[in-house]
Amino acid sequence: MNRPLIPMIDKAIKIIEESNNIYIASHVQPDGDSIGSILALGMAIKKVKKEVNIIKVDDIPVDYSFLPKLEIIREYDVENNIDIFISLDSSDLDRLGIGKQFALKANKVINLDHHITNGNFGDINIVSSSSAATGEIVYEFIKRMEIKIDRDMATCLYTAISTDTGSFMYCNTTYKTHLIAAELLKLGIDKDYINRRLYQSKSIERVNLFISSLNKLEYFLDGKIGITVVTQDMLKDNNAKLEDTEGVISFIRDIDSIEVACLLKEINDKETKISMRSKKYVDVSAICDRFNGGGHKRAAGCTIYNKIDIAKELILKEIKNSF
Ligand code: 5GP
Ligand code: MN
């Protein structure tokens, strides 16, 4: 158990017990950690409370379509009498999309997250940047609630932790990560099926987009920086979606000389989404913070409200300055 978090977790459990109308949401452009976490916590609280609503703030990538109980993530209209809003895996309110409206209406906001850039925007903040995934904190939360973790919840938590640690490889992985994963395996999850669905089910469209994006890879600073793009034209040409960029950036970081990998995704001619990764020493969350984004030291993101060519110049300048 993550000892410093216990008082906050206990406080949150107490107010959950005293509440009836609870909403849960995570960030837009959801990943495995955010979806796995909202599903697992949603299922857990549903065992003791009827009124738990999990808000759909964005489309769910096909990668996670195998997760159990996905149908409990639904669209809701904002209402006035919200007892508690629980934010999972989101470092600020703006990242919640429509979820922000629910947070603003709620009597109490519980902010449960592992991003180093988390702004502690909740009434109760359960924030641990040493946790590899929000799913790890949710695991501890459910244990503390003394709710039995079933196979469906375990599948969601394993997905959350596996995806945010790059299959237990990234430097955020700790002995605790492995202990939790071991407990989840003990609960009888089908890890081979989960791994196949998460890592061995790429569509041909995704592979084609990957190839065209790597064809645009450029190196700077003696190959320490690798930067590439995915434009709307590239998506169209390959019949792919934005979620199909998954895998490009980690591949670039895997290159021997690379310290910082950067992927620019063209949303439209006024908006560019940026993903960044580092390997050993550059703090990419600090770079993204300068553009009102955030994340972790080795994985972060931001949005630059400009066209992709300009965004590239702006971000490249900041990356170079960070060496
Ligand atoms: P990704 O590159 O996979 O989208 O995101 C990498 C990490 O940075 C994730 O932990 C993600 O939550 C965080 N992140 C990505 N984009 C943003 C952003 O615009 N703002 C903040 N605060 N965090 C972001
Ligand atoms: Mn996460």
Ligands bound, unique: guanosine-5'-monophosphate, manganese (II) ion
Instruction: State the end-to-end distance.
Output: 37 Å
Strand order of the largest sheet: 3-2-1-4-5-6
User: Largest sheet at a glance?
Assistant: 6 strands, parallel
Q: What is the oligomeric state here?
A: single chain
Describe what this molecule looks like in 3D.
The protein is 38% helix and 20% strand. The chain contains twelve helices and twelve strands. The strands form two sheets. The chain has a six-stranded parallel beta sheet with strand order 3-2-1-4-5-6. The protein has a six-stranded mixed beta sheet with strand order 7-8-9-10-12-11, sandwiched between helices. Helix 2 runs parallel beside helix 4 (134-144) and helix 4 packs antiparallel against helix 5 (151-164). The longest helix has 15 residues, at 32-46. It is globular, with a radius of gyration of 19 Å. The structure holds guanosine-5'-monophosphate and manganese (II) ion. The site of guanosine-5'-monophosphate has 17 residues, from strand 11 and strand 12.
